[in-house]
């Protein structure tokens, strides 16, 4: 077990700045996700922590020890790769035992550690087989077992579920969470899938363009995005952004006037989560012109326009709204995000 | 009706190549075998007996095997080293590979003559050694009196000429191995040599097997380089076949040599297929 301190890590490839002085602290036993679109630098950061890539400047400490310049094997970590990287020419047993064999652990310890990891990941029946005969999900279990068998101080995972089909991904996600909670290993998890990050993490670091855009607990990031990028990236459907005119420090939402942060003058952007609305009489609520209504079973998804700007909102499944109708919406006043139209940054963010 | 037509199309398309090979490969092969084991139209072991009784026979077998034994392992090791090195190169990789494969484009006789110009009495090597004052007069490297130097010279020329094809196969094999395998091994504590021997080498087994078979079969057929550098000073199997065919005008004994070379090549291939067994279950 160990904490990780990432201090002003910078990485340039030629003239391209892949990481712009990233700082991040991960507590002992904490699960932190690096979430962002492809090309945001999340995998580069993970590979620098692993020692597979060298930082241009900055420092990394694992358990208080600086690891810059150390070989991956001397950093006390294990890693799970996106394409599993389970060795095809070794049996599942030898794969899981690989790290221990490299450490010259004695046969008894190898056996007991492999059995333990195999039991945790439910791969005991396959120990004698070759990975070739296993499904993607089983191979990923082997990869996770291989990582846990060495009892690493830190576990790094690089999009471990993205090669699995949707159903299996959901199942593995739940299982991964249970396994890692049980082992209490400090984990950094790279993903571009926001539901994965939400479900698994203690904290999420949303990355964009080589920077950490926002870091916090999943619910905080979801409800209080620090910027337009974070709001738009998190959640499905993504957050709606509606440009509204400001008069005397308020905006008109239907027949209600809502005070907005004082710093803006003419216009403000309202960040609205699709589920933070309820149906109201057209005369009272904010007018939504419905273009498409999709009953999804668990909810009713409406696509349309508010003040001529495209939005998606969610209503309870029982409501009956049809395409072409105009409806009124009441907004949950305490769950609104206000953003600057110029910078795209949140104006009422708790951290500001 | 259409289905019947369709099933015939593949065979129709393949037919020219099959006929071509049958006419120009299978037929001569059968004829050669018959030539080797017959005399005056009747089955006979006379040719084989003449071959085995010849003065040069044992020498040719010994030299051919020694050459194969000296050349093939060195070529495999060099090709593995070249392939591993070029894998680490980012810029100019294609250029390096291009330069390395130049010997592939040179015919073996030309390669032999090229090395002759270096190693003959008035060649570049002697000039160089002389200019450094290391030798007092032109040294003779390629005569029957210096069999070890001659063997060494032929081996070096063969290695120079034939390593490129091994490297091409091995580089192709290495390209098939995702870098994550090596990275995973590195993270879990394997050093560079362990990574090479326990991860990379087993994963390129199919390429290694192909390279070994191809190179060994070619090594048993070594001729032009030997002929260019040593003339008849170092008898090898194909050289003997050539001598019996052209100088002695004895086609039967020449055919016997040809059949012997084929049998040796087949045997070597079988040995490799068994020894470097590729289990499809253990491939990525």
UniProtKB/TrEMBL annotation, chain A:
It is a peripheral membrane protein. One of its GO terms (molecular function) is ATP hydrolysis activity. InterPro entries: AAA+_ATPase, ABC_transporter-like_ATP-bd, ABC_transporter-like_CS, ABC_transpr_MalK-like, ABC_transpr_MalK/UgpC-like, Mo/tungstate-bd_C_term_dom, NA-bd_OB-fold, P-loop_NTPase. GO terms for biological process: carbohydrate transport. SUPFAM superfamilies: MOP-like, P-loop containing nucleoside triphosphate hydrolases. Gene3D superfamilies: 2.40.50.100, Nucleic acid-binding proteins, P-loop containing nucleotide triphosphate hydrolases. Signal peptide: none annotated. It is found in: Cell inner membrane. CDD domains: ABC_MalK_N. PROSITE patterns: ABC_TRANSPORTER_1, ABC_TRANSPORTER_2. Keywords: ATP-binding, Nucleotide-binding, Transport. SMART domains: AAA. Pfam families: ABC_tran (PF00005), TOBE_2 (PF08402). GO terms for cellular component: ATP-binding cassette (ABC) transporter complex, substrate-binding subunit-containing. Residues 4-234 form the ABC transporter domain. Belongs to the ABC transporter superfamily. This is Sugar ABC transporter ATP-binding protein. The lineage of its organism: Bacteria, Pseudomonadati, Pseudomonadota, Alphaproteobacteria, Hyphomicrobiales.
From TrEMBL, chain B:
It is a multi-pass membrane protein. It comes from the Bacteria. GO terms for biological process: transmembrane transport. Gene3D superfamilies: MetI-like (1.10.3720.10). InterPro entries: ABC_transporter_permease (IPR051393), MetI-like (IPR000515), MetI-like_sf (IPR035906). PROSITE patterns: ABC_TM1 (PS50928). Residues 61-272 form the ABC transmembrane type-1 domain. Keywords: Cell membrane, Membrane, Transmembrane, Transmembrane helix, Transport. GO terms for cellular component: plasma membrane. It is found in: Cell membrane. The chain crosses the membrane at residues 12-37, 57-83, 95-118, 148-174, 212-230, 250-273. Belongs to the binding-protein-dependent transport system permease family. PANTHER family: ABC TRANSPORTER PERMEASE PROTEIN (PTHR30193), INNER MEMBRANE ABC TRANSPORTER PERMEASE PROTEIN YCJO (PTHR30193:SF37). This is ABC transporter permease. It comes from Phyllobacterium brassicacearum. The lineage of its organism: Bacteria, Pseudomonadati, Pseudomonadota, Alphaproteobacteria, Hyphomicrobiales.
